[in-house]
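Structure tokens
________________
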Amino acid sequence: MLNTLSGRFLILTTIFVMLAEILIFVPSVARFREDYLLSRLERAQIASLALLADDMIDADLEAELLRNAEVFNVVLRRDEVRQLMLSSPMPRPIDETFDLRAPAATELIKDAMMRLFDREERVIRVIGAPVREAGLLIEVTMQTSGLRMAMIDYGLNILVLSAVISVITAFLLFLAVRATLVRPIKGVVGYMQSYAAAPEDARRIIQPSAGVVELREAEEALQSLQIELTASLKQKERLAQLGGAVAKVSHDLRNILTTSQLFTDRIEMSEDPTVKRMAPKLVNSITRAVNLCESTLAFGKAEEPPPKLTHVSLIDVVDDVFDGERLAIGDFDLSLSEDIPAGLSLRADPEQLFRVISNLVRNARQVIVARGERAEISVAAHEDTSAWYIQVADTGPGLPSKAQEHLFQPFQGGIRKGGSGLGLAISSELIRGHGGSLSLVGTGETGTTFEICLPKGDVADI
């Protein structure tokens, strides 16, 4: 109970109401003391009227009047003459004098607190103004025991009443908090627990219904999060299913390509000049396809092989990419160019680097051919003391804004219509495996440029 929100709110409300009542208690007791003393002055004034009516009263009547007024002496000043109206013996000398004609609030509070905590019996003089202007001044002497007991009784009544008010107020607030806060929060928690049990089930997504603005905002934020998470889980499930299918296809395709590789070994023995010229490229293509199938199988096992770093002649890799692309271009007016320093050698996995550059060039070629306008694709490279840089640029139509938002995300960053968006995602992952980065330098109506950065690092030359 005490660890719940409503329970703690109940306790805090009770404490705060009691604190408020205590702050009210002090001035209330001070006001009660003032009223008590003023009532004694009024009683004394009424008792003195008997003497004004009859100059001679017997001692018994005088004593009775003083007992009823709860005072020892009554002094009345009328017409600048100070007159002792009623008197009786006092048990001890006067200890203090209090003037109630124009008291300050702080002074009343201070005197009341001192009297409340002072247990010693004292005799005090109280001065005030007569009621109904029946003189200039009236003063009485009285004991403090009756005053203190009356103040204690009054204070206890105030505290009991405060406690009752605190409990009632806290209970009502407890019910209000449970209805307006605790119950909706428990509803949100219930939705969260239900959704956690089956996050793929869209029926378990929370439907905002709270009337409190802050709770409704929390429900809407939770709803948005659950929708995104459900979509992501469904996409991951589809990717897992696709991965299984690709692994099966890659396994059988690897076997087929291995058989084809055996045939190409025989083709290389042909004496035909054209066959001799084309056979090495065919062998390389089939070898790459076999390696790709093996890598796909390894990726399906979450075992993407690390790059096998070696010194690579970039111009040779680019030439292999361009040779394959020229066959795909055919008669279309698309030119391929390179600007690579002679003898530039970098450290990378040749097969993975080929796949990355091939993906970038092929993506550019497919977009340009689909557009049907003359264009150019170029590969340039340079280096500095820390890294090698390869830029793949084209003069095509540029990337659409939607593709730029999810450029390197699988199945979301497709550049052309019908594309899967896997090429750039795979290329980015392969370059990250080299410790480098693949980034979009710029895109627009004049074309698109991607840059590959491969760090040189501190590794010794191979």
